[in-house]
Write a structure and sequence with these properties.
Helices cover 64% and strands 0% of the residues. It is mainly α. The protein has one domain. Helix 2 packs across helix 4, helix 2 packs across helix 5 and helix 3 runs antiparallel to helix 4. The longest helix has 21 residues. The two termini are 31 Å apart.
């Protein structure tokens, strides 16, 4: 998708969300821009993890095991589930629930990986939210129906 088509899709998604009275277009656009900033921040703060320790150079895509990075994201989700199952407080941020902290870890890893890969998580998220609003299988009556989505 070209940059203009990509931007048009995000603007369309923002307008769809605004039309549904989710938020005003400006607030949604601010949220999208906030996610862009957060993705950049997560990636910049994790810069040392993207350095080849043998050469001191930034790793290339060929040097990064993306499936391994995805499994690390999954491990954070699994830790969040365990924290929720046992109703634990986090051991590093003891004023917060483990569920909350591990989900934050997953988000940080997702946004960091997306930053490395040059993915537009903010735009994709806005578009996916707008798409999901229109999905028949997400409507309550269809979820209640026999065979409907329960989760």
């Amino acid at each position: 998708m070209s940059t203009n088509n990509h931007e048009d899709a995000v603007i369309s998604a923002i307008n769809t969300l605004a039309a549904a009275k989710v938020q005003a277009p400006g607030a949604i656009a601010s949220g999208v821009q906030g996610l862009v900033y957060l993705q950049d921040l997560c990636h910049v703060l994790a810069a040392n993890w993207w350095i080849d320790m043998a050469t001191g150079e930034r790793k290339t895509l060929d040097q990064v095991n993306v499936p391994e990075k995805l499994c690390l994201i999954h491990s954070e989700i699994s830790e969040a589930m365990e924290g929720h199952r046992k109703n634990l407080m986090d051991d590093k941020l003891p004023h917060r629930k483990m569920l909350e902290v591990e989900l934050a870890d997953a988000l940080i890893r997702i946004l960091d990986l997306a930053g490395f890969l040059g993915l537009d998580m903010a735009g994709a998220t806005a578009e996916k939210l707008a798409f999901n609003m229109q999905r028949a299988d997400h409507k309550i009556e269809n979820r209640k129906a026999e065979g409907g989505k329960a989760f």
